Amino acid sequence: MRLVVLGGGESGVGTAILGKEKGCDVFVSDFGKIKESYKEVLIKNGIDWEDEKHTESLILNADVVMKSPGIPEKAPIVKKLVEKGIPVISEIEFAAPFTKAITIGITGSNGKTTTTMLTYHLLQSAGLNVGLAGNIGKSFAEQVAEDKYDSYVLELSSFQLDGIINYKPHIAIITNISPDHLDRYDYKYENYIDSKFRITMNQTEEDYLIYDADDEAISEWLQKNKTRAKLIPFSLTKTFEEGAFIKNNTMEAIINQEEFKMETESIALEGKHNLKNAMAATSVAKLMQIRKATIRESLSNFQGVEHRLEKVLKIQNVQYINDSKATNVNATFFALDSMNTPTVWIVGGVDKGNDYNELMALVREKVKAIICLGVDNKKIIDAFGNVVDMMIEVQSMREAVIMAQRLTEKGDTVLLSPACASFDLFENYEDRGRQFKDAVHNL
Hints:
Pathway: Cell wall biogenesis; peptidoglycan biosynthesis. It is an enzyme of class 6 (ligase). Cell wall formation. Catalyzes the addition of glutamate to the nucleotide precursor UDP-N-acetylmuramoyl-L-alanine (UMA). This protein has three domains: 88 residues, 3-Layer(aba) Sandwich (Rossmann fold); 209 residues, 3-Layer(aba) Sandwich (UDP-N-acetylmuramoyl-L-alanine:D-glutamate ligase), CATH 3.40.1190; 132 residues, Mur ligase, C-terminal domain (Protein-Tyrosine Phosphatase, Chain A, Alpha-Beta Complex), CATH 3.90.190.20. It is 35% helix and 23% strand. The protein has a nine-stranded mixed sheet with strand order 7-8-6-9-10-11-12-13-14, covered by helices on one side. The protein has a six-stranded mixed sheet with strand order 15-16-20-17-18-19, sandwiched between helices.
């Protein structure tokens, strides 16, 4: 079988290694530059590769093509493959048949990294032999090639789900759905919603779908469409005979007639959205039959995820918070909602079709000044120019942090929560978050 891998990053190189091990004729092609460290791995494994081009004669003879999630369906080479009827799949689809491990698949517009890390933390603390992969950490395919784990927690983006045909997780989670990446879905929200729900399309009666019952898009989809999976809802406002919910400041999860309770104030992660993430992860832990004491301990000592409402430093009684991972309006909504002090908000970047009106009430209530950090800030200025007392445009993170310090008084918070992608001024959201932290440490 000829396997062509488009994209020589983590998922691409991992897929190439697994393909080679399973006896495929493997070729890796990247339109950009492949990092030296990945080139070395390919050479060491005797895998053919090219970069800075796509040679059609070497690609269009594939039996199957694994496309990295970053490559859009509209890319010319992908269109040609589809026209020829060659299956174009994701790493998850390619690797899953080669493992007997149980997979827990987690998707959603926001909260999926925190929920993934928390679920992994719960299962690992319980002594399960569990791997972590998907959008995060080491390539799933490469871990399958090494055959080390009995179960995997996978963070799955809509792009990875677009590339599945037969894959099904034993336990699926949809944390929430809000407009994001619409540029990849012809600007149609319903296409993006359908993409998320691909996570459950192959599930059977023996599988589970854990979902946010407070989420409008999820509830509407479930009313109109069927999944065979057993449904396990979670909610901040409703209660269930089976599911997870909050009642009298206590989180309760009732699953397979077993009840788990924990006071919400004992949960390490703060904010309402994190209670949802905790309910989702606890539901998985209950399904995996983890002891109550272990779940309680894990929820109370979990440290959170870098670049997601990460407390950086307190300087002159001003708290600096790095929420660089907030690349859409909905994520920033959660961040602003959890602020309890006057906030100087650093926002901006590459807009993915944002509607800032959703943030209006929170900005009026919580934000004293806005610092726009982006190449084009017009939309943000139009939205909030008359709402806050102070609006400043800057061109570097260092400048943003220095200005923020000037605008704060004791007891304030400086929040980096961009609501946008980072590619105009930074390599990625991690680079943006690190630059913020460095600038704060240099104040």
